[in-house]
């Protein structure tokens, strides 16, 4: 009997800035790919700073059982280069590769918006790096996030993946990476997280 190999696409969404060269996100991608390789995954990668092709990226998404998005958080969202990637790749995938349009039908034009995804057998996970400390979240007394969680902040990205029918795995976060980094502990937490969710 043929054993089906697990397949993962790992995306490094880092955008280089003078104060953030991308070493941490690259190191996290390396940790993720090493872990996946040790578990028997076949792996493809995409990095925003490299050239990429829309059709090739669509094929990678269709091929993958698992998509892991590694990204810093810039101004409460993804770097502009990954937004460009989404605008080009995900828009091109709406018409038969990643989804069947927006899921609505002529019979029910006002219902089931976003239910046309074709990647129902694909899981996704976000791995994020924040300047914000963990204590900024899930606490109504904290000024900025007002009790919201990281997943509340990234609700639009969860919906983008859901639009294609993908299923979420718990988000991983490295907090306070610029002022109070604890990178070795973050690496250990990442490995534990991956062991628990995959």
Provide a concise account of the structure shown.
This protein has 198 residues and is an alpha/beta fold. The chain has helices at residues 23-38, 54-63, 80-92, 150-153, 155-163, 183-197; strands at residues 6-12, 41-47, 66-72, 123-129, 167-168, 172-174.
Q: In what range is the share of β-strand residues?
A: 15-25%
pLDDT averaged residue by residue: 95
Number of strands: 6
Total of DSSP H or I helical runs spanning 4+ residues = 6
Radius of gyration (CA) equals 17 Å
Low-confidence stretches: none
Largest sheet: 6 strands, parallel
N-C termini distance? 23 Å
> In oligomeric terms, what are we looking at?
single chain
Which structural class is indicated by helix and strand composition? alpha/beta
Helicity, as a percent range: 25-40%
Order of helices and strands: EHEHEHEHHEEH
Identify the overall geometry.
globular
